[in-house]
Amino acid sequence: MDYVLHYNIAAIVISLLVIVLFFSRKFFPVASNKYYAFMGVFVAFSSFCDILCSLSFMGKINYNPVSFSLIFGGYFAGSILCALSFALYTMALVEDKMGSDAQSIKIIIAALSVFAIITYPLSQITKMYFYMDNEGYHHGPFIWSFYGILAVGMAIVLYTLVRYGKFLTKRQRAAAYFALIIVILSIVFQAIFDKIPISNFANALVFMVVLHTLQNSRDYTNYKLSLFDDTAFYLQIDNYIRANKSFYVLCFDLEGVGFLEQTMGPEARTELLEHFGRECKENLEGMLFYLGGTRFAYIFDSTRKEAIEKYAEWLNWRVMTPYRVKGIKVTLSIRIAVAEYGNEINDRETFINSLRYALREAKNKASQEIVWASDKMIESYQRYRDIVHVLKKQIVEKSFMVFYQPIYCAATGKFSAAEALIRLYDEKMGFVPPDEFIPIAESNGLIIEIGEIVFRKVCDFLSHEGSELGIDYIEVNLSMLQCMQEDLHKTLIEIMDEYGISYDKIDFEITETFSLTDQNILIKNMNALISAGSSFAMDDYGTGFSNTEYLIKYPFKLVKLDKIFIWDAMKDDKAMKILEHTVAMIKSLDIQIVAEGVETKEQAGLLMGMGCDFLQGFLYSKPLQKELYIQFLKNDGNVNQ
Questions:
Q1: Residue 219: C-alpha distances to residues 14, 92, 232, 327 (Å)
Q2: What average pLDDT does the segment 209-227 reach?
């Protein structure tokens, strides 16, 4: 009786070559890689056993019944384990999405695997599946179970792809379905033509296809830097948490790389990061990950706090020595954050959030000290997230509150202007201070949408009540991000046209941070709005650098003196002289002055005596809701009448 051996020989060669190729690569120790390796081993083992059995059937090797049972049982068990490994591999690709499904299916697979390993090699005793006697080879009554278990394995693969395939890319899904179809066809073919052992050859081909499709897309490596990527980072954290291990994560961000990229291009940036990563691996133990941008992280298992501090010391020491890239010396700085899992923090989401917040805090510090994640920091991060959630919610609902703080005109004695001030209120959090939520809105890019919502509310107010209340103008703050929008002037003019208000009813306030924007875009926006009839005020003058160059370069109509500048002058003679000269200088440029933070009649008298045109502060009124502001104006500046 002749059997075709070529397919099994080819299967062994292919599977062994792929195994060598697979292990020659740097791969991350996740479940999918483990099951992939099992697939290859079982394909080679099953093929080898099948060759030995075929040689026996062909009369070229004689086995005693026990040896034959073990070899032929190995073929059956290896084929089944290969199919079940394929099922486990497919599940591992989407296991984080499967929930309790994964555990249930794994129990089924484990039971079938144990069944195959124990019962098939012992078939000579049980005679359930096959056996050998003096008359030769015979099938047992339950030989169909072999194909039944293979069918279960393929059904698991199909179920996984149908239900959870949406979490794979199109390329991954196509490769998985292709592999499934090939395996099923080979099993059917093998059942019909048992003298042509093609199933293992098909499995070997699938093994090779998977390496170049699914495995290539899931090797968790950044090839440019030869480091594990951020996906591997989060997977390793999940592995430790599932194993109930305590561990540390040291995360750090390099600063100063941006200059190199701007001057020398992205290749120089990659060269520097590659060099830095290589030095870290050579000098520090632990798993190093590249998280993208200029961020890296180490995960340390069972490492003492003192060792972490020494690692941080080495990182700080290393960046003190300039790197030389393409002939240019590059000086870096580093920000380091550390979080420990298993002591104060034993929840995955809390741990990740605390690490992110700690790194954010490290970047805000002037020094390069380590920032350790703590309970207090976690609470701060939770409040940060809550504020972001409320901001996004109120953007959708357009439910931000706009308060108005009246501005007193020294020349007329009337309150013909006001500053529009956004307020954030939430039922659970209450009022959130502007100096807390506005920076958060700016850092998340939400301030652009918020600014438009506030501006629309102001325009709506002016269109309905502005003229009858005698309001000359309302001051509206523009953020740095808004000023960076090239079409800002078009958007603002369109909104004013939509509500039918005169352009001169709006004075736009910008702070000294506008110097960080593209000055050409800012001047273009300012000139377009000024040409239409609006005006601009420089806010918070007297803080920061208070660069007088800005007053010359930009077409401001108003300057708002910061309250701290004014309060300091009331307490110190030198500060008072500086204030007097500042007011005189601004007035000489034909720019009007608004003094903020006026709280006493003495302050008001001094400021008007210096030449300040407008006064704003609690002496006259705190910021008021729209209805109270209307009442304030109708009662000639007394909200309680």
A1: 21, 13, 8, 34
A2: 70
